[in-house]
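Q: I have 355 residues here and want to know how they pack in 3D. Can you give me a structure?
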Amino acid sequence: MNHPLLDLPPLTAARFASIERGVAELLGTRQDVVITQGEALLPLEGCIRSGARPGSTALNIVTGPYGTTFGNWLRDCGATVVDLAVPYDTAVTAAQVAEALEQHPEIDFVSLVHAEAATGNTNPIAEIGEVVRAHGALFMLDAVASVGAEALLPDAWGVDLCVIGAQKAMGGPAGVSMVSVSERAWARFAQNPAAPRRSYLSLLDWKERWIDGGRTALPHAPAQLEMLALEACLERISTEGLTAVEARHAAAARATRAGAAALGVAPYVAVAAQAAPVATTLRVPGASAVVAKALSVDPSVPLAAGGGALAEEMLRVNHYGAAADLPVVRASLTALAVALSADPTEAVAAATAAW
């Protein structure tokens, strides 16, 4: 018996290339785009292992949990790592980055997360990119949580490696990820004898076997379901308009902060300009128990407790894709209010007014 999700014809090189062009259009980039068959940690590790090596020095900017992971990979590659860490409830500034680069002129690689969905902060990449570009270092940006939720302009901001995933604000599949690669980055990879080859981590394999080959023959069979879902995701964003999608996420975050304030709940990221539109984080004592109670009221709401040590002090209201919607924000605030033994009326009204 035929099944529409199982009995699929092979994905052609032409269709794969078409989806690739859709990603480039989404990012507004003229750089090469590589679609990798796995969650975004795959290209992030691939970028670091291709760009870092013994003798290089990396500035690893830590504004959330992923920065720690990046630092570990960089050290494992033999690079000297300078960590610039800031509290998870704030953003790093371009001045702080400039100071680190001035103190360590040997830095030739910079890694940073744009928006931290886990902690709800976002960093000023335009200003930071200008500083990094003036210094001359290669700039890798994890934009998995920011793409679709806020402005992302890798070419204009001087980003050499911009990694994105579809599972958050894009509202797409989790099993496929993408990275735009500048000419400077390709040159850096080619000069690194330790860069992964014949490996899922290898971006150079994709360049040599796919891009340089004219995109006529795929290096391996792509994950069809994820690729088709990514294609549908890109089409949906194009239909709504990227500006409208970003505005919807900004409205969801603004409304959630207003509703939480009406409940007397403080935001985890105090400065609104430093708060990521993809998820609103709130300071709630006993957060894991509060989330469990809220989900018992309404299992559909996108609430989650913070990870690790934050599980008892922070909860997150996700605005991923379709969840960036006023009815979802209202439902989330209502469930949260009930879990806190509060009346949701004022919170819902404040959110509606702020939207």
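Q: Anything worth noting?
A: DSSP finds twelve helices and 13 strands in the chain. The chain has a mean pLDDT of 96.
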